[in-house]
Design a protein that fits this description.
heterodimer; A: about 290 residues; MetI-like fold; two-stranded antiparallel ribbon; 2 strands; B: about 280 residues; mainly alpha; globular
Chain lengths: ~290, ~280
């Protein structure tokens, strides 16, 4: 699709593009290529000199058990959040799609957590489940669980999953609701006339027709857990206890800053870039094809 | 809908209400915590109805700050506001201009320029965080608003959104304004911008929330406490030694940090939904 009517000018279009191109080159391409270059360098302890070491940083990375643990943590974290938040928001969206009174009010009351910063969401949840003063820790302790997300890795991960899910429900809810509203009513009515009940209609008609939205949301949710949950992790666990809730992105941050291992951190960045590019490619492919069974 | 059975709708109301309660409860607790003094919270038996310390907590938080840090949160909110506005306005400015160039002009390297911008969609700032930090440091932009804002507007979402919208504007409009003798600047100012107002507003809402909620980037590049944003400030109030955390001040700060973006979502809901759905396409 191209415009027929145009302006002609030799210089003006370049002037118009200049601000964005300049910012993109300086703050995007230059650092991204630096990250790739740095991943092949080894700095000395004082950061004074560096030498080219080829794939040494990568080889070293794949020898660290911590790196594999971060991979597993990221996989567990993202699949738990994706499954939980998609299930809850699909349930809520199917209910909100019915003809109810105050349905707009319900919608508003469900979408506002989108505006809460991930780090703030983390703070809210750590306050609620704080081992000594949390309002909800007492009932948990009362049923005999020694709840302490600061010492127990499983508890810490549970808390992270809950707060990340809480924050993501509103986003998924909005997209599911839009998806549900775009399903033609005639299809559903036809199925009802043929005698299928609401649950059967959901699984045989609505859910398959929603699959483009669902696939899109799965990718978005994984990307969300990879990157946007940094604030939640830093506020709730700081990657602990004993590094057991450190995800791949958190490790890039921790190794580069606290560990000062810039080469290793850059190598991790490059691997992350490859993962994100892969995810984005999958997303484009599916969104284009509009998956449907 | 197909059936309209009363009990089924009752079930829907019930599920939605439970959902809303779960979604609201953490925030409700934070608001309650902002109305008690520190000792009531720390002993673990905070009541679930408001206390009487709200005025004191909000005054201290906004204008004085926690007793350890003494950094007023009002200042941090100002920084957050400047950063969020800068990101929203900056991104709209650069992307409306570049989309105008890409759609309404033909010039050598047009598609190259478009792809250079488009690729940025793929990599969030988190994966290139240290090299970006180094460049910002080399440019002397640490602890400045420019340093907080510029790296975060290097992305293609706005450009794509405006490009998509400009494509839907009928060619006849441009032909008509050309016949009336309007040049590129005139067309841009008098036709394109007025038509794009809703798109601009929707993008503004999304980018304002995005900017206000930034965490990792301001955490790295602000070293002076006077440049801190509120989202960073609250993290620093929650210390690892529990005894030192003033939870009443921390939770008051959390409430204050949520108020501006949440109000934006509630009162500009239509624009917010439009922006969210369209920037993700």
């Amino acid at each position: 699709m191209e415009k027929r009517a145009l302006f002609s000018s030799k210089i003006l279009p370049y002037m118009l593009l200049l601000p964005q191109l300049a910012i993109t080159l300086i703050f995007f391409y230059w650092p991204a290529s630096q990250a790739v270059w740095q991943s092949f360098l080894l700095e000395d302890a004082f950061g004074l000199s560096s030498e080219f070491v080829g794939f040494e940083n990568y080889r070293h990375l794949f020898q660290q058990p911590e790196y594999y643990r971060a991979m597993v943590t990221t996989a567990v974290f993202s699949s738990a959040v994706a499954v939980l938040s998609l299930a809850v928001s699909l349930l809520l969206a199917t209910q909100a799609d019915k003809q109810l009174r105050f349905s707009n009010g319900y919608k508003t009351l469900l979408i506002w957590p989108y505006a809460v910063a991930p780090a703030i969401a983390g703070v809210l949840w750590i306050f609620m489940f704080h081992p000594t003063l949390g309002t909800l820790s007492r009932p948990i302790k009362a049923i005999g669980i020694d709840w302490n997300p600061m010492l127990d890795a499983n508890h810490a991960m549970t808390l992270l999953v809950l707060s990340a899910t809480w924050k993501q429900i509103s986003y998924n809810f909005l997209f599911f609701l839009a998806g549900l509203q775009s399903i033609p009513k005639s299809v559903i009515e036809a199925a009802a006339i043929d005698g299928s009940g609401p649950i059967r209609r959901f699984w045989t008609i609505i859910f398959p027709l929603l699959s483009p939205t669902t696939f899109f949301l799965i990718v978005v949710n994984i990307v969300y857990v990879f990157f946007d949950t940094f604030g939640i992790i830093d506020a709730v666990t700081g990657g602990g206890p004993a590094g057991q809730t450190t995800t791949l992105v958190y490790k890039v941050y921790a190794d580069g800053r606290l560990g000062g291992d810039l080469g290793g951190s850059a190598a991790q960045s490059v691997i992350l870039m490859i993962i994100v590019i892969g995810l984005t490619a999958i997303q484009f492919k599916y969104v284009e094809r509009r998956v449907q069974y | 809908m197909v059936e309209n059975r009363r009990y089924r709708n009752l079930l829907a109301y019930l599920i939605l209400t439970i959902g809303i309660v779960i979604v609201a409860f953490p925030v409700y607790l934070a608001i309650m915590a902002s109305t008690f003094d520190a000792s009531t919270i720390i002993n673990g038996n905070m009541p679930l109805v408001p206390g009487d310390q709200a005025a004191d907590n909000y005054y201290r938080t906004l204008f004085i700050g926690g007793s350890a840090s003494r950094e007023p949160v009002g200042m941090m909110m100002f920084n957050s506001f400047v950063m969020a506005m800068g990101i929203a306005v900056g991104k709209i400015l650069i992307s409306v201009l570049s989309a105008f160039a890409v759609v309404y002009f033909r010039f050598p390297l047009r598609m190259t320029a478009f792809w250079i911008i488009f690729i940025t969609l793929m990599l969030p700032v988190e994966v290139r965080i240290y090299p970006t930090y180094k460049i910002v440091a080399d440019l002397g932009l640490l602890d400045t608003y420019t340093g907080l804002i510029l790296p975060l507007i290097a992305s293609a979402t706005g450009t794509l959104l405006f490009r998509q919208f400009f494509m839907t504007i009928p060619d006849e409009l441009l032909e008509a304004s050309k016949i009336d003798g309007a040049g590129a600047f005139r067309f841009f100012k008098d036709t394109l911008i007025p038509l794009s107002i809703t798109t601009i507003a929707a993008l503004f809402v999304i980018q304002f929330i995005y900017g206000w909620n930034q965490y990792l980037w301001p955490l790295l590049i602000t070293t002076q406490s006077s440049m801190q944003t509120i989202v960073i400030g609250i993290k620093k109030m929650i210390t690892t030694q529990d005894a030192l955390t003033e939870w009443n001040i921390a939770m008051t700060t959390a409430v204050l940090a949520m108020v501006p973006p949440v109000l934006v979502v509630i009162f500009m809901q239509r624009l917010f939904v439009k922006g969210l759905v369209e920037t993700e396409k």
